[in-house]
Amino acid sequence: MRDQTAIVGIGTTEFAKQIDRSERRLALEAIQGALVDAGIEPSEVDGLSCYSMESTEEIDIARNLGLGDLTWFSKVAYGGGAGCGVVGQAALAVASGQCSVAIAWRSRKRGGRGTRPWAGVSQRVQGDQQRWTRPYGMLRPVDEIAMLTTRYQHEFGATREHLANVALAARRHANANPAAVMFDRPMTREDYMSARWVSEPLCLFDNCLETDGACAVVITSAERARDLRQPAALIHSWAQSLPQQHQTMTNFFCDDPLRGPSWSCAEKLWSLAEVKPDEVAVAQLYDAFSPLVLLSLEGYGFCERGEAGPFTQDGGIEIGGRLPVNTSGGGMSEAYLHGFNLIVEAVRQVRGTSSNQVPDAEFSLVTSGDGVPTGALLLRSDR
Amino acid sequence: MIEGLLLPGMDEDSEPFFGFTAVQELRVQCCSDCSAARMPPRPMCPHCGSLESIWELLSGSGTIWSYCVPHGPLLPAYSALAPYNLIIVEIPEYPAIRFCGNLVASPNGEINELDPAGIRIGESVQVVFPEAVEGVVLPRWQRLEDGES
Ligand SMILES: [Zn+2]
Known about the structure:
The structure holds two protein chains of two kinds. By secondary structure, chain A is α/β, with parallel strands linked by helices. In chain A, 32% of the residues lie in helices and 18% in strands. The relative contact order of chain A is 0.19. The mean pLDDT of chain A is 96. In chain B, 11% of the residues lie in helices and 33% in strands. The interface between A and B is large, with 42 and 46 residues. β6 of chain A pairs antiparallel with β5 of chain B. Chain A: Pfam families: Thiolase_C_1 (PF22691), Thiolase_N (PF00108).
């Protein structure tokens, strides 16, 4: 299905720490925006794809927007690992003829306290991911990633300077993106180094934002895309990965816990692509936590194992650097919507409309979360 | 909101593990047919498909594979202890099986009583069996030299 489908419309609500409208309302606004952007009527939509964690339902989306007869609808599991699979599966449905125009979306409100999913456990912890860790106090995703980070630093010599490079690159990009939550909030290296700990070795600025908002994209055939309003973002290749013996999140019961699902996802992604990592101009790498960007740089083959820290030095992942990463500000400084805003930004880069545009970006990569069963999309401009 | 510390929920697969820790034994589930060890415990051996398993006694020694130090916000009972240490322990018998736990100064010590700045990857540790609540033992870990003194 290489280059046979395309993202032809993108839509977002505003992003903010707290928005008073419902998740349903936000989803509808983002999807409506994406359809207007594409120049496609709601009645033409016959496919829907979302995260299994999405709280808005297909029937509500379809009944409000006035969608046509849906012939395909599906969901992808594993939270921040799902986004690229949500879009990729919609593209697969279009390519196979199960539908002709599909929408993928994510609407999420978590700005308010009391909505932290990790706090929603019961006293007696069930489930293989949690039973063996939560009672000891490994309560939050950040604690799992902190554990990996200490080991990563030990094995490869990565430092807090390297983690700061990730956070600062995202912030600088956000400072040029008026839609970013952190648009008017510059950050210095000193700000990073003096921030409070969340789970040592990770501090506040190693964590993504907590954001309310919604994003949507419209997917159709590349053939149809050429008659539409916007430059097509062709889906060149895409992949999902649930590696053997993996579990919901960080897996300590395996030979090498630092080798996350990105590695096997990358293998599939590149095997389906005509290009190699060095031909990718820009990447949106899932960044719920800064170390995930380092692990993803290695997993997707942008540098050798253990060399992602040095790769970020001297502006390596900023505009003008070796590989500009998270050019909208990403989850750490634009908005955290389980990675869906990264997909929207990857589209902007091949359209040439990013507020941190990489010149002549032909191939634009976006990934979902490392550590969880994941996915990736490699987009291509239709020039 | 939950007040106390969390406890492992039991099901038919995990209950034996905590049955053994309650009698001060650290054991791992192994396939009866091909001997492969697996964690978390589950019904089927992924190597040979066998549904039969035994629980092999481990030496209880290990080395610290990694650690981290959570700070708040956390559930209230954990916030009260924060910052505390979390460790992942590698065991010599099965390097791919790593237990999450805490480093304590004595078998019934609190998880925040050791200075986390002193924890090092590669330190040798030995399992201890403190009772979390009556009848439920969560294995934790003590430095070898602390255990000998
Ligand atoms: Zn077996």
